[in-house]
Predict the 3D structure of the following.
Amino acid sequence: MSVPARFFVAVMIVAGAVLAACSGNFGSGTTPPNGLLPSGPLSGIAPSPTPSPNSASNIVSYGSTAEFQALPGAAGWGGAIAFAVPSPKPSGFDTVAIGATVAVVAPTDAPDLNLLGKAKNAPKRNRRARPLVYITLLATHDVQLAAYPRIAIDVPRDIMTIYRLDDFGLALYNAGEKDTAYRLAVAALDTGSPPPTSSPPPTAPPPPTAIPVSASPVASGSTPPATPSPGVSGVPTPAVSPTLPPQRIAFTATVAVLKLTANRPVVFALYALPVPSPSPSAGAPSSGAPAATEAPSAKPSPTGS
């Protein structure tokens, strides 16, 4: 084979290899040149918005401050927590980082909120507590608290319309103590000094539009012009009332020893006692709504449920 023929064959082999490489890259699903998106039915599809998570976590600290520290927000819930600083501090005491998780689903391996024990003859509650939100604390080191932390919880407004303030309670489950059940009513509601809320108060709707000064007066004895109804062109529509922020409720720091064991969860659960339906009496009049039965308020009971 002559030299020009050999050169021509080599050029054809190189060109074939380049074409094969290019076809492999475009066929393997890589991004088209210039980052162009594919045209057709999929080009107009926008990603769906991310739903509010059912749980969220952050880090709070014990030992450095007694002020409220923000808890994460999840599914419309939020709040704050405050730990009392020990005085005097023990020798070698340092700040302890604590993971805090807010969730509307029960934590893994935690007992049922209404579980009273494994005994078959355990008494039954007349009114079962409904868990609403869980606050799980996970310490990085062993630490012993002289009192429970103060916990403030931002309750969504749709929940506040169902229950009364006295229906809410705070339960405790401590895996480090090898508890088998939640202890109900471990803290009392703090109605004297609730912590400030982080959400801004709703703004009031603007006042109705005033009558212009240049309006011509109505002559004596004549009929005033009819006032146009809302919605007519040129008449301002009343502003819609703003959405109310969550209502913050706080629980006092019960004076009781709370041991936080490293890597073992301590769960505080906000629960509500359902209001029983009042039974109509035989002598009750047919008209008028019967009076609602008062629900017993939750009292702090750190020693048990």
